[in-house]
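Can't paste images in this forum, so I'm doing it all in text. The chain is below; anyone willing to post the predicted structure tokens underneath?
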Amino acid sequence: MDKEYFPSHYAPYKILILAALTPIHVGEGRGEGVVDLVVQKDPIFEIPKPRGTSIKGSIKNMLRNLGEKVEDILGSDPERTPTIPGKVMILDAKLLLFPVRSSQGLFNYVTSTWTIQELNSLAKIVDVELPIIDEDSKVIYATKKFKEGIIYFFNGELSYEIKIDNKVDKLAQRLKEKLRGILSPYLLSRIDYLLLANHEVFAEIVNAGLIRVARIRIDPTTKTVEEGALFYQELVPEYSVFYSYILKTPRAKQNIDNIMKKLCHQITVIGGDETVGRGLVKLGLLDVEGGDACKTEKS
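Text version of the structure:
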């Protein structure tokens, strides 16, 4: 960990894992293209990136429902005067694993070399050697569960050459170690079918795999669609896995650990459309050393 990277008043504290149990819509607002309501994305590769503010608000509400006083740790609500600053910083979430349909297996998880490097940027979470993939390469590296050749995604919409590399197998095993207890046994088994691409190919696959659904609004009197009430919404598919770094200040008291552990294996909602089953995520915590922060001595 490069401590010189941080201002003196912040340091890495935990890594928050968010595993999607249902499709997620953390909205950006109106889009410029065909999709009216797009999800929050990074501006370069347009990969989904739920903002820290959305995650913090969800966690704050959840901890309050559990009876915790959260203002000292997460800060007061914006409308409160005077405001109380929080003791932790929750960074924007980044997409770690994305589920895709392919011609080899029911579905596979895909990630990128840059994604893993970013995960390791503040702490060595998965300290394994990665294959060197050129920026302009269209080759995807895979575990030994695959067959070399051409792989097709989304019923042939995208296709790439894949090569087997045991470094991807080692990466898959390390990810399974970190996500055990957060993902179900079946989803953990799908990490054995891991694909590793450069970030440009990863972005191409992710954008093709986002869900776009048509939504309508019904007139309660006529029971017909209201005029101009058809719109398209973008969703991140279920089984996607995000991570977010949590930083803390020296002002954070010792009881922060006891409160933050309340997040372990909780199910909460991020984003909109909660009443139609969107945004359910399961939470997990990793230490900056890479261990499971949710484990107790008894477990």
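The first helix runs from residue 52 to 65. The longest strand covers residues 11-20.
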